[in-house]
Design a protein that fits this description.
Number of strands: 10
Bound molecules: ligand LGD76KDA
Distance between the termini: 36 Å
Keywords: Acetylation, Fatty acid metabolism, Isomerase, Lipid metabolism, Mitochondrion, Transit peptide
Radius of gyration: 18 Å
Helix content: 40-55%
Pathway: Lipid metabolism; fatty acid beta-oxidation
Order of helices and strands: HEEHEEHHEEHEEHEHEHHH
Largest sheet: 6 strands, mixed
GO molecular function: delta(3)-delta(2)-enoyl-CoA isomerase activity
Catalytic activity: (3Z)-decenoyl-CoA = (2E)-decenoyl-CoA; (3Z)-dodecenoyl-CoA = (2E)-dodecenoyl-CoA; (3Z)-octenoyl-CoA = (2E)-octenoyl-CoA; (2E)-tetradecenoyl-CoA = (3Z)-tetradecenoyl-CoA
Number of helices: 10
Protein name: Enoyl-CoA delta isomerase 1, mitochondrial
Length: 280
C-alpha cells in the first residue's frame, strides 16, 4: 500500500529537473541541482532517522524515481543536526508481529538492493552519527565524506546482543577487508571520524557541509567523460558478489532474521537497550 507520504515523495521527484526543489515530505527531502542533475536526498525522520518501514519505503521509492528520471548522481545525507541515522528503528524489532517484522525486513532488503546496485554515482555525506543501519547506508554508497570530527560510525550490533547480517558484513568487508571487519564487528566497534578515515571506512573528513559538497562534486566529476553504461556495468561487476548473495538468499535471510529476533532473550535485550536510550 502506498502511504500519502510516499506518494508526496514520488510525485515531487517526478517533476522535471528544471529547478532544485524540496519534496515537502517530512521523511525524505529531495533537491536536484538543475545544472548538474545531482540529487541531494536528505533523511528527516525525527528524532534520529530511525530506519522504520515507512522511511525505508520512502528511500526506496526515492532511489527508484531518481533513476527513472535520469538524475546524474545522488548524495545521501540527513537534515537532522548531528544525526546521519541511528540505524534500524529498534521499536520496529521489539515486540513486532511476524507480519510486521517480515514487512520491515523485506523493505530493508529492497531498499539496500536498490541503493547498492544503482548505476548512479552515489556519495554519503555523513553529517552526524552513523551507527549500525546508518553505517550500512553510508557504506552502500560509493564515496563517503564525513563532516566534522565528533561523530562515530560502525556496525555495533554485537553490543546490542545482535549480529550484523551477512550482507551488512560483506558490505564492510568490501571496504575495509576481512581482518578489520572481523575485529570491528566482533567487538561492535564504533569508529571515531579519525579512526574511520585511517582505516578507509570513510574517504574524506572535512570541516563543513560546503566542503563536503565540493568533495562530492569532485567525485562526480571523475565520471564526466566516462560513458554511463561502462561505469554502471563496472560498478555492477565489482559489487556482484555481495549483491548476489542477498538476491539469491532473501527468503533464507528473512527466516534467519525472524527466528533470531523473536527469541525471548533477544527481545529482552532489545527492550533493555530501548529503555537505556530513553533514560539518557
Ligand atoms: C542466537 C542469538 C543471536 C541473536 C541475534 C539476532 C540478530 C538477528 C539479526 C538482526 C539484525 C539487526 C540489525 C540491526 C542493525 C541496527 O541498525 S540496530 C540499531 C542500532 N543503533 C544504535 O545502537 C544506535 C542507538 N542510538 C544512539 O546511540 C543514539 O540515539 C544516537 C547517537 C544515534 C543519537 O544520540 P542523541 O542525539 O543523544 O539522541 P538520544 O537521546 O539517544 O535518542 C533520541 C530518541 O531516539 C530514540 N532512539 C535512538 N536510537 C534509536 C533506534 N535505533 N531505534 C529507535 N529509537 C531510537 C531514543 O530512545 C530517544 O527516544 P526518546 O526521545 O527518549 O523517546
Amino acid at each position: 500500500m502506498t502511504t500519502v507520504l510516499q506518494h508526496v515523495v514520488r510525485r515531487s521527484i517526478l517533476r522535471p529537473f528544471a529547478k532544485s526543489f524540496s519534496s515537502g515530505s517530512p521523511l525524505v527531502d529531495v533537491q536536484v541541482n538543475d545544472k548538474t542533475g545531482v540529487a541531494i536526498v536528505k533523511m528527516g525522520r525525527a528524532p534520529v532517522n530511525g530506519l522504520n518501514t515507512e522511511l525505508l519505503g520512502a528511500l526506496n521509492d526515492t532511489f527508484d524515481s531518481l533513476e527513472k528520471n535520469k538524475a546524474t548522481g545522488m548524495i545521501l545525507s540527513s537534515s537532522i543536526p548531528n544525526i546521519y541515522s541511528a540505524g534500524l528503528d529498534i521499536s520496529e524489532m521489539y515486540n513486532g508481529t511476524p507480519e510486521n517484522l517480515t514487512k520491515f525486513w523485506n523493505t530493508l532488503q529492497s531498499m539496500w538492493i536498490n541503493l547498492y546496485s544503482t548505476p548512479l554515482p552515489t556519495v554519503a555525506l555523513i553529517n552526524g552519527n552513523a551507527p549500525a543501519g546508518g553505517c550500512l547506508l553510508a557504506m552502500s554508497c560509493e564515496y563517503r565524506v564525513m563532516v566534522g570530527s565528533k561523530f562515530v560510525i560502525g556496525l555495533n550490533e554485537t553490543q546490542l546482543g545482535l549480529f550484523a547480517p551477512k550482507w551488512f558484513q560483506d558490505t564492510m568487508v568490501s571496504i575495509i577487508g576481512p581482518r578489520q571487519t572481523e575485529l570491528a564487528l566482533t567487538s561492535g566497534k564504533l569508529f571515531s571520524a579519525q579512526e574511520a578515515l585511517k582505516i578507509g571506512l570513510i574517504d574524506e573528513l572535512v570541516a563543513s557541509e560546503e566542503e563536503a559538497l565540493a568533495s562530492s562534486d569532485k567525485f562526480f566529476g571523475l565520471f564526466k567523460r566516462i560513458p554511463g553504461y561502462a561505469r554502471g556495468q563496472t560498478k555492477n561487476f565489482v559489487r556482484a558478489e555481495v549483491l548476489d548473495w542477498l538476491l539469491k538468499n532473501r527468503e533464507h535471510d528473512t527466516k534467519v532474521f525472524l527466528n533470531s529476533i523473536q527469541l525471548p532473550h533477544v527481545q529482552k535485550g532489545l527492550g533493555l537497550y530501548l529503555q537505556s536510550l530513553k533514560k539518557k
